[in-house]
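for the writeup, i need someone to sanity check this before i put it in the appendix. the sequnce is what the collaborator sent (i think, or maybe the updated version? ugh). structure was predicted straight from it, no edits. if anything looks off just tell me and ill rerun, i have time this weekend
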Amino acid sequence: MVKTYAKGIALCCLLWSGLLLAQQPVGDQADIAEPALEDSIIEEPAIEEVTIFGEAAGPGLWKIRNGDNTLYILGTATPLPKKMTWRSREIESVLARAERLLPAGGKVDADIGPIKAVQLYMQYRKLRRNDDKDSLESVLSAEQFARFEKLRQRYAPRQRDMLKLRPVLAAGELWREAVSRSGLSSRNDINKTVEKLAKARKVPIVQPTLRIDDPKGMLAEVGKIPLAAELACMDSTLDRLEFDLGTARRQAEAWAVGDIDALRSTSALAQRETCWSALMQSPKLAAARQQFDDAWLELAYESLERHKVTLAVVPMNELFRSNGVLELMRARGYLVEEP
């Protein structure tokens, strides 16, 4: 029962971390993915990998100034090199003076007991599949499925369970596997590292709390996402895997060496926005994202009004997108200094 309860909580965390951080494509949640079915021995093709040798500092910090008060922002990216060793002395210097840290994430407040946790997990397992338990092949067009299967055979030949998933989740699973095979990782270990550094220095960590009053209803809405929106997400993901995975590798390297200009990839933003626009057709999910965005901005504004030094960790796409964090800070009258 304890294990099942934990899975129910993990489900809410899935909605929280995937939706609100927008750090990775839909479906990139390995912790609660179902076990894959393994084929007999398959000869897998060699994949070009990204490896960063030595210590990487990452990009410099954006500085948002309000008089004598400064909000420092570390932009994080996904994916990043698996074997990268990250250390930023600039981050350590800021944390030595910081009065608070705003990490890339938040807390979930939901009334979920053991029975509801079981119900939520079973509901989640059901919505992972297509209606009437159709296979992915029967849902996609012949051309789409041929593209998907060719890429699956290249990057995830043993992951046949993908063939049972609904398109938006199958696209995310395939992307995660391709990223991993390329020597990259979609996990945000940078944010975790910054939190550990802050705790070691006794810097208070403040983050929004998302109240989920109806997790069952939220999941039910996700299950009703129009097929056309899911297919658009699939197309965007296949396009990026076929033509632009090299850009993801180059962006990972660019983050490691602090090349910010190279991080402004329109293809990466296009894939992410296409897949998230599918999820945003759920009113409850869209409201949850807006709730988080508003709460995070209020904490950032409060920090600039009341605290000398604050450090924040923000996904790069949230900095660069239209009406993103940097635009909103400028619109409020704060001075924004680029790294």
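The first helix runs from residue 2 to 21. Confidence is low (pLDDT under 50) at residues 1-44.
thx in advance!!
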